[in-house]
């Protein structure tokens, strides 16, 4: 009680509350898209960053805040590494790890009292994860010149683990009915609640509109939470 300071307590409360609310907006978007680091993870990262920086400021002023902010930046890398997964030649979770890193930045800004800057960073993160998605999809779906590159096409669907068997058959049938034979179907457990099926197509000419239609039809199934397709090249 000798060190109790109502003013500092109020500052910490406001910082943590702002970090909580802003990270909740970021995490809600990640949770909606069934990413491995969702609402709670992003909120906890931001709250922790805000608390640590606030502690540093209280102990040693701006110098203390700066020192602990540096530790937050380096420490969040270990947490981000935990959500990055390698599947063969593909790497998943980089976007989620980057989002966690940005949530830590929001927490740091809130912790040192730069609330307006924290809001701006939050809006930028949300814009990057939502507004840029159509552009990314458009680039990924652009026709590939098969004379200069060999393309591998995959259809990916998300479902609950208990529906994997039924969805495997549904996915294969939907693609083969669209005249796209399936070479292989891989199952990746994204979390306890989400499994991903990735169907690799036999090398063939692909019409993006037809794969869009297949993805749309699959998303109408109650078994499917999300469906998309992608193309990769080996140059």
Structure, explained:
Its main location: membrane. Belongs to the MgtC/SapB family. The chain crosses the membrane at residues 12-29, 41-59, 65-85, 92-112, 118-136. The chain is of the alpha+beta class and 235 residues long. The chain folds into two domains: 6-131, no CATH class; 143-234, 2-Layer Sandwich (Alpha-Beta Plaits), CATH 3.30.70.260. The chain has helices at residues 6-32, 39-81, 94-111, 115-130, 133-140, 164-177, 208-219; strands at residues 85-87, 90-92, 150-159, 182-189, 195-201, 226-234. The strands form two sheets. It has a four-stranded antiparallel sheet, covered by helices on one side. A two-stranded antiparallel ribbon has the order 1-2. Strand 1 and strand 2 (90-92) form a beta hairpin. Helix 1 packs across helix 2, helix 3 runs antiparallel to helix 4 (115-130) and helix 6 runs antiparallel to helix 7 (208-219). The longest helix is centred in the N-terminal third of the chain and has 43 residues, at 39-81. The N and C termini lie far apart (66 Å). The model has no long low-confidence stretch (mean pLDDT 81).
């Amino acid at each position: 009680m000798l060190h109790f300071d109502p003013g500092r307590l109020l500052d910490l409360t406001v910082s943590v509350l702002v970090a909580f609310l802003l990270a909740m907006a970021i995490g809600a978007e990640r949770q909606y898209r069934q990413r491995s680091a969702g609402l709670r993870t992003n909120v906890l990262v931001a709250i922790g960053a805000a608390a640590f920086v606030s502690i540093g400021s209280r102990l040693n002023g701006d110098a203390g805040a700066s020192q602990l902010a540096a530790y937050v930046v380096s420490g969040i890398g270990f947490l981000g590494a935990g959500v990055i997964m390698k599947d063969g030649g593909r790497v998943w979770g980089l976007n989620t790890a980057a989002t966690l890193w940005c949530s830590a930045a929001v927490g740091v800004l809130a912790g040192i009292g730069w609330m307006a800057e924290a809001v701006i960073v939050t809006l930028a993160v949300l814009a990057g994860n939502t507004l840029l998605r159509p552009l990314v999809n458009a680039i990924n779906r652009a026709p590939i010149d098969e004379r200069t590159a060999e393309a591998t096409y995959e259809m990916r669907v998300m479902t609950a683990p208990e529906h994997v068997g039924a969805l495997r058959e549904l996915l294969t049938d939907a693609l083969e009915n669209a005249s796209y034979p399936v070479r292989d179907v891989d199952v990746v457990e994204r979390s306890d609640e989400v499994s991903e099926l990735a169907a690799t197509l036999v090398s063939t000419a692909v019409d993006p509109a037809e794969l869009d239609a297949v993805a749309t039809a699959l998303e109408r199934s109650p078994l499917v939470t999300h469906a998309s397709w992608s193309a990769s090249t080996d140059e």
